[in-house]
Design goal:
Order of helices and strands: EHEEE
Number of strands: 4
Helix content: 10-25%
Low-confidence stretches: none
Mean pLDDT: 83
Shape: globular
Strand order of the largest sheet: 1-4-3-2
Distance between the termini: 8 Å
Structural class: mainly beta
Strand content: over 45%
Largest sheet: 4 strands, antiparallel
Oligomer: single chain
Length: 62
């Protein structure tokens, strides 16, 4: 089950450290929070400076 989404912008430098461009369907886990939140990438927008804006949809707990 997916819940309403949020947007996150990732800089070109951060994408370079990541080593790949996130794509629709990728899973992101925020590990710095208690009970790591899991988000699915539902949309990817690349700007002219190399920054990436991701639409993230939180996955409900099983």
């Amino acid at each position: 089950m997916l819940l309403a989404g949020t947007w996150a912008t990732v800089t070109a430098a951060e994408i370079g450290r990541l080593g790949y461009l996130p794509i629709q369907g990728d899973m992101i886990v925020l590990t710095d929070r208690p009970g790591p939140a899991r988000y699915r990438v539902t949309q990817v927008d690349l700007d002219d400076l190399g920054a990436v804006t991701l639409q993230l949809t939180k996955e409900a707990a099983p």
